[in-house]
Design brief:
Blueprint: E1 12-18, E2 23-30, E3 36-44, H1 49-52, H2 54-72, E4 79-86, H3 92-104, E5 110-115, E6 129-134, E7 138-143, E8 148-153, H4 165-182, H5 189-197, H6 202-211, H7 215-220, H8 222-231, H9 235-258, E9 265-271, H10 280-291, E10 295-300, H11 304-313, E11 322-323
Parallel strand pairs: 1-4, 4-5, 6-9, 8-11, 9-10
Antiparallel strand pairs: 1-2, 2-3, 6-7, 7-8
Helix pairs in contact: 2-3, 4-5, 4-8, 4-9, 8-9, 9-10
Organism: Blastopirellula marina
InterPro entries: ATPase_BadF (IPR002731), ATPase_NBD (IPR043129), Euk-type_GlcNAc_Kinase (IPR052519)
Protein name: ATPase BadF/BadG/BcrA/BcrD type domain-containing protein
């Protein structure tokens, strides 16, 4: 991937994070010393080209940029640089097609499209870095000092997504169904889930599951409740949460092996709904990583667009990244 021309103080830049649900844009003014002043934010619909197609993805990205430009009363022609972190662009052909379309739309004088996992990595250093997403699904990315990348997880809820919100919710539902079918009298975590969904029997629970139009999202939403119950020392919930953390730690360990990273002190940047609570699950994950022989420095990235902007302003472009097969 080519390195874009130098980013200089006084320039206006645009950073975009796009996924399967929404597209967020942030416009900033570059200051001295790598600092920036955020001028405006904008949002539009989904822009994962794998899900909506390249043309629709480009339209959503353009809409998000326009929304931000209008909010900040900025002319789009003023954008010197643009970094577009978009889900579904690991394939070079897809990424190239989207880049070509965004260039035609003149969203920035110099623009680069990267996969949405890249901003999880530390762009300020060439040291080994890891990124971990644990939301509805789960996936991890790692980079070694040679610029090699590897991905672990991201298989989807049918084959994988261990450690995700869906996996936690599924385990909670399995426990609830087993208790209903065995005793007919749920208690503890099972009782909480039954009350939340307004069911009293296994049949009612299965009927409720069959009624959802987005089953994956509904199941994943149970993760918040299960984590809360784990905080209250419900031992079933504790076991489910511990298993999820161990599964996520295993993804990071797989990347260490794949990338031949021997040092145990590692930086891991995390994102996703499981890390949006009061830090409880983050602490559980940290302990799981330590049990796996690592000394993790964890950082929660609550705003993906901020991370994209950080990568852009730093002048870092992953032109030497090589994704291992």
């Amino acid at each position: 991937m080519p390195r874009s021309p130098s980013i200089l103080p006084g320039q206006i830049v645009v950073a975009v994070d796009g996924g399967g649900t929404k597209t967020a844009c942030r416009i900033a003014y570059v200051l001295e010393g790598g600092q920036r002043e955020v001028l405006a934010n904008g949002q539009a619909g989904p822009s994962n080209p794998r899900a909506v197609g390249v043309e629709q993805a480009a339209k959503a990205i353009q809409a998000a940029v326009r929304a931000a430009a209008q909010a900040g009363r900025i002319e789009a022609s003023e954008f010197e640089h643009g970094l577009f972190s978009i889900a579904g662009t690991f394939d070079a052909k897809v990424r190239g097609a989207l880049t070509e379309r965004l260039t035609a739309l003149k969203l920035a004088t110099n623009l680069v499209v990267i996969p949405d996992l890249y901003p999880l990595l530390d762009s300020k250093s060439n040291r080994p870095s890891f990124g971990l997403i644990a939301g509805t699904g789960s996936v991890a990315i790692g980079r070694n000092m040679r610029g090699q990348l590897a991905i672990a997880g991201g298989w989807g809820h049918v084959l994988g997504d261990e450690g995700s919100g869906f996996a936690i919710g599924k385990d909670g539902l399995r426990h609830t169904l087993q208790m209903l079918e065995t005793t007919g009298a749920p208690h503890g975590l099972a009782a909480v889930i039954c009350e939340l969904w307004g069911v009293h029997t296994a049949y009612e629970l299965k009927t409720r599951l069959a009624s959802f139009t987005d089953l994956k999202a509904e199941v994943a939403q149970l993760a918040k409740v299960i984590v809360e119950q784990a905080q209250k020392s419900d031992m079933t919930a504790v076991g489910i949460v511990l298993k999820a953390a161990e599964d996520l730690a295993r993804l990071v360990q797989q990347l260490r092996v794949r990338l031949d990273i021997t040092e145990s002190a590692i930086g891991v940047r995390v994102s996703g709904g499981l890390f949006s609570n009061d830090g409880f699950f983050l602490d559980v994950l940290k302990q799981a990583l330590k049990r796996a022989g690592m000394q993790p420095n964890l950082q929660v990235l609550s705003d993906p667009t901020h991370s994209v902007l950080e990568m852009l302003i730093s002048g870092f472009q992953p032109k030497q990244y090589h994704l291992l097969p």
